């Protein structure tokens, strides 16, 4: 199966990968980078609800599918620089406050040129590969249980 190039903005790609990665894997990978940044929470972490919308067949009229628990956090780096680039945001499904805070910290650090490349190359890329491997394994597992139905036409 050929992989299409990811055309999303780097920040959108980063947020997606961080939110879908289990917290323990994210913490372990983050620790291996050795980036020690002092930060303070600007907002949260706080848990709330988000309305989910769906479309029939992916193209029909939008409808409210239901609600989902969501945790968000915003952090600012405390490194003396007073610019907006040191503000990071994190959102994660569920109630894992530490996960949302960690995503916000990674997001804030990734906005610094000194850390951005290391974060994308040594953190995001391997985590994205792991997500793709898990997705491929889930597809193989589902394909193994696939049943092909066919109709037997009987002559009259």
UniProtKB/TrEMBL annotation:
It holds the Pfam family PhnG. One of its GO terms (biological process) is organic phosphonate metabolic process. GO terms for molecular function: lyase activity. Keywords: Lyase. NCBIfam families: PhnG_redo (TIGR03293). This is Phosphonate C-P lyase system protein PhnG. It comes from Billgrantia pellis.
């Amino acid at each position: 199966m050929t992989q299409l190039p990811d055309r999303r903005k780097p920040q959108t790609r980063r947020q997606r990968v961080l939110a879908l990665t289990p917290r323990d894997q994210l913490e372990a990978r983050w620790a291996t980078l050795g980036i020690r940044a002092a930060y303070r929470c600007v907002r949260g972490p706080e848990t709330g609800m988000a309305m989910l919308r769906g479309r029939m067949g992916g193209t029909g009229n939008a409808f409210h599918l239901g609600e989902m628990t969501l945790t968000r956090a915003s952090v600012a780096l405390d490194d003396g620089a007073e610019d907006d680039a040191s503000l990071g945001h994190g959102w994660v499904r569920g109630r894992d406050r530490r996960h949302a805070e960690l995503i916000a910290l990674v997001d804030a650090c990734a906005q610094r040129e000194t850390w951005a490349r290391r974060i994308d190359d040594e953190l995001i890329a391997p985590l994205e590969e792991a997500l793709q491997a898990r997705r491929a394994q889930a597809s193989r597992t589902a394909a193994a249980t696939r049943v092909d139905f066919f109709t037997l036409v009987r002559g009259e």
